[in-house]
Design brief:
127 residues, mainly beta, 0% helix, Cell_wall_metabolism_enzyme, metalloendopeptidase activity, M23ase_b-sheet_dom, Dup_hybrid_motif
Length: 127
């Protein structure tokens, strides 16, 4: 799947994996600026393992893709799936918002393997 995935929403990437954050840590994913209510789509087939509000992430949804790969979608306006739901790649799972404390509307997105964050831009097709 590496290099063949699509970003989960249309918008502009404003913060990138590994770049410095204001509080001194680094970004473990991407922040994609997008309009409130825009579709958030699962990057690949999997099963929802978390779907609720979490401090610092807002409305958060996590999809387990198997083989210890997870995708994380945060700052959502609304969640369209529940824990246990199977999802297809490209299926709408949430809508963009600003529930995570970020002043901008957009999606915070991570890919994790064995619990370690990976650079999402290494996994998406930029064409």
């Amino acid at each position: 799947m590496k290099g063949s995935l699509r970003l989960p929403t249309k918008g502009s990437v404003s913060n990138r994996f590994g770049s410095a954050r204001q509080e001194g840590s680094t970004w473990k994913g991407l922040f994609i600026r997008a309009g409130t209510g825009s579709d958030v789509r699962s990057i690949a087939a999997g099963r929802v393992v978390f779907a609720e509000w979490m401090r610092g992430f807002g409305n958060l949804l996590i999809v387990d893709h198997g083989s210890d790969y997870l995708s994380v979608y945060a700052n959502n306006d609304s969640l369209l799936k529940q824990v246990g739901d199977d999802v297809r790649g490209g299926e709408s799972i949430a809508t963009v918002g600003n529930t995570g404390g970020n002043p901008e509307s957009g999606l915070y997105f991570e890919i994790r393997h064995d619990g370690k964050p990976l650079d999402p831009l290494a996994w998406v097709n930029s064409k």
